[in-house]
Design brief:
205 residues, mainly beta, Porin
Length: 205
């Protein structure tokens, strides 16, 4: 938990420091531009994760950190990649690690004239988990579909507070214990990530 907070804090500070010169220049050049949604962007976020396996009695939850990078080739449309890592409480003695890697398309609305810019996103989601139980290492993975949305609330055209939620649906399979594959059927798995952080659009238009 402490490592997660330190990593998030370092990433936030790095983005803020890097963004300062670009944001000041953009505001001086065109005060009518209140937000930006074109060009390269990068974001970091703290996450609350929820994981539900098919036929499970409860939702596993835990904190994590997410990183998003993308490129908007149009004021409304962009391609993005998103990675997140979390420590999830599964109800046993030890938490298990859970990771997402998503690629897809994001649509922004209302930029550059408005400060608050909503967005929707959808794509493919690769998910993997690992847990140590006694002396055994248990792993599993799966591919699914990710969709969600949120808002970017801009402090200035290039830098914004961001909040959103992403759901991933699909199956979990490829189960292994200590590297040996198990002959088990895949099971349905649904995950949700609530994200709060910052996003930076450094390129000037």
């Amino acid at each position: 938990m402490n490592t997660t907070r330190l990593a998030l804090g370092a990433a936030v500070c790095a983005v803020l420091v890097a963004a300062m010169p670009a944001t000041a220049t953009a505001q001086d050049a065109n005060p009518q531009v209140k937000s930006r949604s074109e060009g390269f962007f990068v974001g970091v976020a703290y996450e609350g994760n929820g994981v539900v396996f098919e036929d499970a009695d409860a939702t596993d939850t835990g904190p994590g950190v997410g990183v998003t990078v993308g490129y908007a080739f149009h004021p409304n449309f962009s391609a993005y990649a998103q990675f997140s890592s979390a420590s999830v409480d599964g109800g046993l003695d030890e938490n298990y690690g859970f990771a997402h890697f998503d690629v897809g398309t994001r649509v922004h609305f209302r930029a550059p004239a408005k400060t608050v810019v909503p967005y929707l996103q959808a794509g493919l989601s690769s998910r993997a988990f690992q847990q140590d139980v006694d002396t055994d290492e248990i792993k599993g993975s799966g591919v699914g579909f990710a969709f969600g949305g949120g808002i970017n609330a801009h402090f200035n055209p290039a830098l914004a507070f961001t909040a959103g939620v992403v759901w991933s649906i699909g199956n979990a399979g490829d189960f292994k214990v200590n590297g040996s594959k198990l002959d088990l059927d895949s099971v349905g798995m649904t995950t949700a990530r609530v994200q709060v952080g910052i996003v930076w659009f450094p390129q000037q238009k």
